[in-house]
Amino acid sequence: MHPLLERLRGGLIVSVQVHRPDDPLRNPDAMARMAGAAVAGGAAAIRCGGIGGPDDVRAISAAVDVPVIGLWKDGREGVYITPTARHVHEVADAGAHIIAIDGTRRPRPDGRSLADSIAAAHDRGLVAMADVGTRGDALAAVAAGADVVATTLSGYTPDSPRSDGGPDLDLVRLLASELPVPVVAEGRYHRPDHAAAAIAAGAYAVVVGTAITSPGWLTGQFRNALPALPAAALVRDADRTEADA
Ligand SMILES: CC(=O)N[C@H](C=O)[C@@H](O)[C@H](O)[C@H](O)COP(=O)(O)O
């Protein structure tokens, strides 16, 4: 096993990404500070890049002393997580140690294969993490050379419907019992007991993103726990009369 992966065994990997172009935190320096805070809290590694791509990976790689799993989300449909070998090279140039790559069997925007993208990571001396949605994806990704498999895309691909909004622990359990490479649990681990359950299910490490690094999401959790505001308090500006102004 790659020595870098040894550092992740049993650990919490924190995903530091924004998900919307208009997120107020969409800024490489803000992301680097968020990553620093996660490391101070005990993160074994940082997963980062997302729609910020190489700029965020560069800022975070310079700011933290734990392994950096870099990715670049380019596009919104189909294969968009580090979708081609060109994206792999740019994330590698930005300083990532591990490259997260869409590891599904769907067609890629440049018509090339997952094996090509993994070979690009290996050419740079880096670890290739395949983000999969199903057992079939995972087996194909290992055959294509993936060093580690993550359950990131379970619930986000047409052949992996999301059942209840929670994490896919069944897939973690299945892959951990079958694959010859480490399996990382990722996707909708929103509570500490979810993360513990992932390790108990055989995950090598667990990634938590939204529940730690999205203040907007966290705010919504608290707001939604409060009783609904009375209708009178919900009058919108558009509903006000001139006399109100
Ligand atoms: C499906 C997809 O594009 N997942 C992305 C992959 O990097 C991120 O948007 C997620 O935040 C990340 O996987 C962590 O998951 P969660 O935020 O649920 O803890």
From TrEMBL:
Signal peptide: none
Record pathway: Amino-sugar metabolism; N-acetylneuraminate degradation; D-fructose 6-phosphate from N-acetylneuraminate: step 3/5
Family annotation (InterPro entries): Aldolase_TIM (IPR013785), NanE (IPR007260), RibuloseP-bd_barrel (IPR011060)
Superkingdom of origin organism: Bacteria
EC number: 5.1.3.9
Catalytic reaction equation(s): an N-acyl-D-glucosamine 6-phosphate = an N-acyl-D-mannosamine 6-phosphate
Keywords assigned: Carbohydrate metabolism, Isomerase
Annotated PANTHER family: N-ACETYLMANNOSAMINE-6-PHOSPHATE 2-EPIMERASE-RELATED
Purpose: Converts N-acetylmannosamine-6-phosphate (ManNAc-6-P) to N-acetylglucosamine-6-phosphate (GlcNAc-6-P).
Family: Belongs to the NanE family.
Designated name of the protein: N-acylglucosamine-6-phosphate 2-epimerase
